[in-house]
Amino acid sequence: MARIPYLTSSTASETIAEPLSKLPSLHVFGLMAHAETVFRPWLRFSGALLNHLALDPVLRELAILRVGQLAARYEWDQHVPLALAVGATQQQIDALDRGDLDALEPLPRAVVDFVTGVVRDEVDDAIYSSVSAFLDDREVVELTLVAGHYLMVARMMTTLRIDPDPAAGADALLLG
């Protein structure tokens, strides 16, 4: 059971009720809405990460899935449909879910290894060199932002004991 009640458009303050009413009814939004001064900027930032990066969306979603796998299963459950919608294969998702990272092609493997290092605070030179051999500087920074952002959200979810939600689907989560 969650440690903090989820806000809804009917229980939130006036400033938060409007944006909250336009979002899927997911616990993550009801939880984050308690942070009134950062809720709208957080939505814009999250939307930018999901919609406006140079980083390939498949790599972004594999990164999010890896964070979810290591830190908060809620993220995994919500992002599998997004990963499939942007072109990740079921084989990639299954390999990641099984922990069979050797089944991934070199670029997705380098991304997953890098994200693993971000989560565990272990990005050594070999891991960095591997990912930077495929991605330019902008993409490496964006990948780090994605991993860091979803790790922050995962830490909030686990600390505040978010309850699971059914997957909302790709259309519901692609914030503008």
UniProtKB/TrEMBL annotation:
Q: Which domain of life is it from?
A: Bacteria
A GO term, aspect molecular function: peroxiredoxin activity
Sequence ranges assigned to domain Carboxymuconolactone decarboxylase-like in this UniProt record: 38-96
Q: Name one Pfam family in it.
A: CMD
Instruction: Name it.
Output: Putative decarboxylase
Q: Which organism is it from?
A: Streptomyces spiroverticillatus
| Gene name tied to this protein | ttmG
